[in-house]
Design brief:
Shape: globular
Helix content: 10-25%
Strand order of the largest sheet: 1-2-3-4-5-6
Structural class: alpha+beta
Distance between the termini: 17 Å
Largest sheet: 6 strands, antiparallel
Number of helices: 1
Strand content: 35-45%
Number of strands: 6
Order of helices and strands: EEEEEEH
Amino acid sequence: MNWNFANNEWSCPSARNNLRVDGTFHYRIESKEGKSGLTISGTYTEVIRTKLISYKLEDSRRFSVMFEQLEDEIRVVQRFEAKAAKDAETQRRMWQSILDRFTVYTESIA
């Protein structure tokens, strides 16, 4: 809820997460002015602690997040199936922005 949105015009007012194979997640993102929002849900298909998280959204698109230990840092690589009706590059920038917010959040609580 603290970082799972693409920019400061949005928020994540609710989130549920059960990070295990066959576990589910459900979160809501909304514009701060309350004019739009969406709910995203899915199921984890593979979880390897500190290495990999794979999941499938309710619309059947597949995602994976890989973690690679480097010397002093961890590289996070996300792969995703773009939504057919939307520009893939715009979607890539959105997902990257969310990862950037995750980085800022985790570094602030470390």
